[in-house]
Amino acid sequence: MTAIERLWEDDFQLPIRDALHFADGHSCDVALDSDAPGGFRVLAAFDLDEMLQGDPSWTSSVDGRAVVDLGSRGLLWGGEGSYGSDGFVARLTADRALIWAIFFTESNPFNRIQLSDNVATFSSTSGVEIAVDIDDPRTPISGPASNGTA
């Protein structure tokens, strides 16, 4: 079991870092960017195990505020972290195991999800909006989303 799977399974926790995590253990930094397709950029990969060794308590429990049921393909979930400015979006299996999750420290909670084909648009309480390919959130989405940071 990977570090991110353990965090998720223990108490729906994610590291407090603007990052994209996959259940297979791969993690990448991300940054909100209103000029980027989808409203954010995927940056360099990093070692989550190494990060957690430095400070294992640097995690946030997350709680959902919006959900889209994908049937046998699982579900999309968006919500908040432990602090008012945190937000997360995720794709889960039908039994709520993690497929991928993105955590933002300055997005505010995500409380709306719209799905069109394979593209989900997540909107936060502060107007941040990101769009992702639900099968691979690293895939650039054509046309920028407005993330309220312009």
Structural features, described:
The chain has 150 residues and is mainly beta. It is built from two helices and twelve strands; from the N terminus they run αββββαββββββββ. Strand 2 and strand 3 form a beta hairpin. The longest helix is centred in the N-terminal third of the chain and has 9 residues. The model has no long low-confidence stretch (mean pLDDT 93).
Can you tag this structure with a few keywords?
seven-stranded antiparallel sheet, globular, three-stranded antiparallel sheet, 150 residues, mainly beta
Gist of the model:
This protein has 150 residues and is mainly beta. Helix content is 11%, strand content 45%.
Estimate percent helicity: 10-25%
Q: Oligomeric form of this entry?
A: single chain
Query: Kindly state the mean pLDDT as a whole number?
Result: 93
Number of domains: 1
* Percent range for β-strand residues: 35-45%
Based on CA atoms alone, the radius of gyration comes out at 14 Å
Number of continuous helical runs: 2
Which stretches of 5+ consecutive residues score pLDDT under 50? Answer: none
Major sheet strand order: 4-3-2-9-8-7-6
- What is the approximate shape? globular
Class inferred from helices and paired strands: mainly beta
What's the main sheet like?
Answer: 7 strands, antiparallel
Q: Give me the count of strands.
A: 12
Straight-line distance between termini = 39 Å
N-to-C SSE series?
HEEEEHEEEEEEEE
Present the secondary structure layout:
Elements: H1 3-11, E1 13-15, E2 19-22, E3 27-32, E4 40-46, H2 48-54, E5 59-61, E6 63-69, E7 75-80, E8 87-92, E9 98-104, E10 110-116, E11 119-124, E12 129-133
Antiparallel strand pairs: 1-5, 2-3, 2-9, 3-4, 6-7, 7-8, 8-9, 10-11, 11-12
